[in-house]
């Protein structure tokens, strides 16, 4: 697929590399139109299917991760247009199919659908200039890609209500305090930190990485009992892998593990 609205790149020195996806509609502050979301979905699935790739990073520009769904493309839609086009669900959920860790490296505005895409990623690194918000209320709509569901789970009800009902933005520090982002990084070092994080993960065993991601999502999306049961099943099953033996033997022998399943 020839990409118009994103750029892709592969980086890394070790066996497993990292796939970088850069959202790239600079004139529109990376507003998310159908084309961009189709391309993002295709690039994510291609990296996910590539055995040479361990982690995927999604980033935008220094000014904007993404300023939301493309308002110009939505402004004249009627109810049936939105419904028929499968607007929102058609390509906004692709990121949830990805089994490998996805790191959002967020600088500048992450608003509306942009904030929702960041929340669908597994690790969110925020540059010190990052600004998050769900301003849909100011447009007379509500978030459409999980914002009303993921934001309260991420930051709690009170802050989610505050953000969603006023449409105000929050800066990186407030976002970190609230648990919306994993870490704040100086803007100039954002991508380096994202790649360093990916490298740490790429050195580990692929099955336990993929299963950990699945289990954390289970915690996020289901009740405690089913999550704990799922975790126990996975815990037991990993004792059938060479990586478990190697990881534990290496620890006891005080050497670095050489995981087979990368
Ligand atoms: C289309 C957008 C856009 C968007 C910015 N632009 N955001 N175009 N859709 N979401 C365009 C502007 O129209 C402008 O184009 C150019 O980008 C630069 O933006 P400015 O507003 O001039 O820049 P600035 O004053 O710095 O303000 C930046 C901003 C503001 C705070 C990000 O642009 C803004 O509030 N944008 C809208 C944010 C928003 O409401 N997002 C939620 C969308 S709804 P021109 O041609 O004038 O230069 C949504 C629903 C998700 O996301 C549903 C899931 C499917």
Automatic annotation (TrEMBL):
Keywords: Lyase. This is Enoyl-CoA hydratase. It comes from the Bacteria. InterPro entries: ClpP/crotonase-like_dom_sf, Enoyl-CoA_hyd/isom_CS, Enoyl-CoA_hydra/iso, Enoyl-CoA_hydra_C. The keyword Signal does not apply. It comes from Ideonella azotifigens. Pfam families: ECH_1. Belongs to the enoyl-CoA hydratase/isomerase family.
């Amino acid at each position: 697929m020839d990409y118009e609205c994103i750029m892709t790149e592969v980086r890394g020195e070790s066996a497993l590399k990292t796939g970088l996806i850069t959202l790239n509609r600079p004139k529109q502050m990376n507003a998310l139109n159908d084309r961009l979301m189709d391309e993002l979905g295709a690039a994510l699935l291609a990296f996910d299917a590539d055995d040479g790739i361990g982690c995927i990073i999604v980033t935008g520009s220094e000014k904007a991760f993404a300023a939301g769904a493309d308002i110009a493309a939505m402004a004249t839609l009627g109810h049936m247009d939105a419904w028929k086009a499968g607007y929102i669900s058609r390509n906004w959920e692709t990121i949830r199919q990805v089994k490998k860790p996805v790191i959002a490296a967020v600088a500048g505005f992450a608003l509306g659908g942009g904030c929702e895409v960041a929340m669908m990623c597994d690790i969110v690194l925020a540059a010190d200039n990052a600004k998050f918000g769900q301003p849909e209320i100011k447009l007379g709509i509500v978030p459409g890609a999980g914002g009303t569901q993921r934001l309260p789970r991420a930051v709690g009800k009170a802050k989610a209500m505050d953000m969603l009902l006023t449409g105000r933005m929050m800066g990186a520090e407030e976002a970190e305090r609230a648990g919306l982002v994993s870490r704040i990084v100086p803007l100039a070092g954002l991508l380096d930190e994202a790649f360093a994080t990916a490298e740490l993960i790429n050195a580990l065993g692929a099955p336990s990485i993929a299963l950990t991601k699945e289990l954390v999502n289970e915690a996020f999306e289901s009740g405690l009992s089913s999550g704990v049961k799922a975790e126990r099943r996975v815990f037991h099953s990993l004792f059938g892998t060479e990586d478990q033996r190697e990881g534990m033997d290496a620890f006891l022998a005080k050497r670095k593990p050489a995981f087979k399943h990368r």
